[in-house]
Amino acid sequence: MLKDLAKTVLTKRRIIKYNKTVNAKSSAYDRWQRAIEKEAVAKAEAPIGYEMSESGEMVPTKLPEPKVKVVPYGKVWDVANAKKDEATVYLFVSPKGKLTKRATEVIKQYFVAHPEHNVVYGDEDEVGKGGKYIHPYFKPDWSPDSYLNAFYIGSFFACRSKTMHDSAVEYDNAVRMLGGTTNKKNSPEQVGLEASLLSADVLFCMLAIHEHAFAKRTGIEFPIGHIREVLFHRSPEQDVFYGRNFHNSRHMLLKPATVSIVIPSKDHPEVLKRCLESLVETTSSDDNITYDVVVLDNGSDAKNRVRYGGFIGKIPKKNGLTKINYIYKLDEFNFSAMCNRGARSTTGEYLLFLNDDIECVKEGWMRELVSQAQLKHVGAVGAKLIYPDTDLIQHAGIANVRRGPVHKLQKMHDNKSHYFGYNRGIHNNIGVTAACLMISRQKFNDIGGFAEELKVAFNDVDFCFNVFEKGYYNVCCNHIYLRHHESLSRGLDTMDPKKMERLGREGEILMRKHSYLYNADPFYSPHLTEDETISAIIPKVDYTLLEDIPYSSVTIHDKGIHGAREDQCLRIGCEYNGSLDNWMYGVTAEGNLEGYYLKGYGFVIGSDNAIFEKRMLLRRVERNESGAGPVSPKVYSFPVYTCYRPDIRVRLQDQVNVDLTGYKVKIRKELLPPGFYQVGMLAVDKTSRLKLVNWVPNILNVRK
Question: What pLDDT score does 699 carry?
Answer without folding.
Answer: 87
